[in-house]
What we know:
Elements: E1 13-18, E2 21-26, H1 27-30, E3 35-39, H2 46-64, E4 68-73, H3 77-87, E5 92-95, H4 100-104, E6 108-113, E7 116-121, E8 125-128, E9 134-138, H5 146-157
Parallel strand pairs: 3-4, 4-5
Antiparallel strand pairs: 1-2, 1-5, 3-8, 6-7, 8-9
Helix pairs in contact: 2-5
Amino acid sequence: MKGTGDKIDLNFDLSIVTEGEEKEVNFADLVDKPTIVSVYMRNNTGGCDRQTLALAEESEWFSNKGYNIVAISKDSCGSHKNYAKKQGINYVLASDPEYKFSKATDSIVEKKMYGKTYEGPSRSAFVLDTDGTILGVIEKINTKDHAGELKELVESLN
Length: 158
């Protein structure tokens, strides 16, 4: 996994949902100021709901500090639209079924579920500068206090 000080390539396309609208964007265009990228597994699951809702509840705090928030999962934009409305999410939700962001950050990990082993994105968060430099990383998210741990990280960067 890439860490603090490493630089990632931001030049890849994703579908996103923002303000209830779906669009295709180059990821670099989302990082027009320092940006928090929170990777979660899927919409409408317990831990992921806690993770994304914590960010929604504190999104104004992050915005006031000058940060964008982007949450990424493999869910479709159709799912993201419904999820954002249901959860009151007012930040960008990105659909990344090909794990482009996780590949860029070298954060694909081995996982096990129901006795099967597979590879997928780690549940992690990255704070990125506009040039793709990683300012900070949370390698294993605490879903119950995701916003709190990110606030602490952001405060340590200022």
